[in-house]
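Hi Y.,

Following your request, here is the sequence exactly as I used it, all 159 residues.
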Amino acid sequence: MWMENYKSDLIQQKIIVEQRTLLWKSASDHFAKYIINWDRVRLTQLGKLTVLNKINQSECSKSLNEIKSSENQEAREERYLQKRDDEKDLLVASLEEARVLYRNTTVPIEIKKFDTFRDVNKNKDACELPDVSELRKIQEGILLSMLKEMSKSMEGEVL
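Below is the corresponding structure, written out as tokens. Let me know if you'd prefer a different format.
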């Protein structure tokens, strides 16, 4: 009887480790793509502000090439915005799953830092947004805490 319980516990442990591993990969992938597109949007908007400031200061008229370049830049920015939002949705879904699979660990605390970052920065203009390094620190905190908990699970510690 105890052997059956032991085998059952091992199987459950293995399933949880596999779920956590897949979730870590998903969160890692979506976080990376979200950050890339978040920074692209920020840098594109900052570039647009710089160009607008130069045009306003010199009060020169735009050439046809500048107009086409501006239109291309706006289309690119729209693509980056869409990709950022798509990856954010996938990332948030992964992080919500992580809150459940990693309850009673430090992972939900790390995820809360991302929630706070999003809440604080959601209505800011590009020039007011923090550098991408702040977002990367949050990413690192979440992913490292997930890895730490997976290591504990693989060592057979209580989940």
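The radius of gyration is 22 Å.

Thanks again,
Q.
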